[in-house]
Amino acid sequence: MKRELVVVIDFGGQYNQLVARRVRECNVYCEIYSYKTPLKKILARKPKGIILTGGPNSVYEEDAATCGKELFETGIPVLGLCYGAQLMSHVLGGEVKRAKNREYGKTETIFDTKSPLFYGLPDKGIVWMSHFDYISRLAPGFRDVAHTASTPVAAAENEEKKLYAIQFHPEVLHTENGTRMLYNFVRGICGCSGDWKMDSFVETAIKDIRKKVGDGKVLCALSGGVDSSVAAVLLSRAVGKQLTCVFVDHGLLRKNEGDEVEAVFGPNGPYELNFIRVNAAKRYYGKLAGVEDPEEKRKIIGEEFIRIFEEEAKKIGTVDYLVQGTIYPDVVESGLGGESAVIKSHHNVGGLPDYVDFKEIIEPLRDLFKDEVRKAGLELGIPEYLVFRQPFPGPGLGIRIVGEVNADKVRIVQDADYIYREEIDKAVREYREACGKDPSWKPNQYFAALSNMRSVGVMGDERTYDYAVVLRAVNTIDFMTAEAADLPWEVLQKVMSRIINEVRGVNRVVYDLTSKPPGTIELE
Ligand code: XMP
Q: Which of 142, 165, 194, 517 is least surrounded by Cβ atoms within 10 Å, i.e. has the fewest?
């Protein structure tokens, strides 16, 4: 597909993917490349603009990530952010120095709204700063277009050469009008028309898949998660009954989830495809009996999945294509930057089945960020509750039950988790109805887990000796770091009381306050 492109050059900053996501929110397609990528290769992609990200280095360090002067001499507009801004100044003859104090956090900034970067914005606003070094002298041909109380050059430009430098982070939501500044760059300065839209993505993807697959047979492992669901529907729209989806219900799914997946993708659902559900709960519980070690459990769950998938594939016979739900962050994180195929294993543990005979892998979502996968899902008419599902690990409740897994523990954690999610969803809905927006405490991921601890309690007049359920709720941007959500006390109270009253085998409920790091989000 021919589309306008902006290239984001990654200098190792923590927000590199966020920059790319914000650009795409401006309806401009963009790709991330390492700063080590030869300029020739980047130019061959014919970008309409280039953005340099932040990074952990200082430009004057000996082995700092850097770029050549040629990058600024191609006539293509370049925007440097934070380290990228300092690098641009340094390479073009300005000066960057170490400040006495780090400037960090929300900072009031004055803008020159005559700069095309800040067109249409108020001349004062809050931005997100995070830097030690600062631009102490502008490179020749540049003028400063924003400043703060302690940073003389918060932004600079050389309008004639279409070079722009921003010391702060417009990609971070704390920066007021940050996306608008990026919009001004990609849509205004670079002149992109905004041709990256999910409806045209879906349409083109369907055409491309049809062309590629012809009358071939396609096999897809469906987990019920967002990525594999969207990939499956896209394929079904493209090739209908040539697609077979295998859904392995390992008995470690959330309450009712197996039936929900079947209702959507099965024979009574709206899609044309061959759907095979394998009810493998007993088989899994058998394999997991007596196993306490978390890694061992993950391995068993992953391997068993592959074995079952292979068995089903053998029944189908030779297939031509295997569908993978790889998405763009997987491509970026693997460091392959669009160079070769990435193979994402269903459970992130076991890898791909060895004995499934196929010609090629199809990865229809490999250019999309998660929020774009969701938009594509809505575009394809997939129900909202599926599209906005929380992340759910491949090994499922197997890693939310500390210690040995068995049917009774699965029942407990399923029922407790159902109540917990129901109450949080209700509280969020009520808040939204009353205030017209989501509450600030709304977690990105929340679930109940089962500790391996039994303790004494009293119910009625009787002593109990039962399990403790752990409630987890985190706020996170990227799931690499996270903080416990500040859930309202009355919601926690209600959940506790319902779980104790409604779920047999539980006499204690605890709320997990641990951040990540040092904790992980899942318990195992
Ligand atoms: P942790 O526990 O590593 O979780 O802090 C970070 C995010 O990843 C999810 N997670 C997994 N997802 N397979 C997956 O597909 C896994 O084995 C797995 N382990 C953790 C977790 O739910 C959280 O969103």
A: 517
Taken in order 6, 88, 477, 108, is the CA torsion positive or negative? negative
Degrees to nearest 5, angle at CA 389 with 401 and 449: 15
pLDDT tens, 14-43?
Answer: 888 999 999 999 999 999 999 999 999 999
Q: Is the peptide bond before 517 cis (omega within 30 degrees of 0)?
A: yes
- The band of 208, judged by pLDDT with boundaries at 50, 70 and 90, is very high
Tokens at 355, concatenated: 């004995």
Residues contacting residue 153 through CB under 8 Å, at least 6 positions apart: 89, 134, 135, 138, 144, 146, 147, 165, 167
Sole residue written with tokens 């076991």: 350
* pTM confidence score: 0.86
Q: What confidence tier does 355 reach under pLDDT thresholds 50, 70, 90?
A: low
Which residues are known to be catalytic?
82, 169, 171
* Residue 170 identity (one-letter amino acid): P
* Stretch (H or E) spanning 111: strand 95-111
Pocket of ligand 1, candidates 479, 480, 514, 524: which has the most ligand atoms within 8 Å of its Cβ, to mutate?
A: 479
DSSP 498: H
Q: pLDDT tens digits for 232-282? A: 999 999 999 999 999 999 999 999 999 999 999 999 999 999 999 999 999
Q: Which residues contact 161 (CB under 8 A, 6 or more apart)?
A: 72, 141
Nearest Cα residue to atom 15 of ligand 1: 393
Task: Give 310 Cα–ligand 1 centroid separation in angstroms.
Answer: 24
Edge-first strand order for the sheet with 243-249 is 274-279, 243-249, 218-222, 321-323, 360-362
Q: Give the residue-averaged pLDDT of 326-348.
A: 57
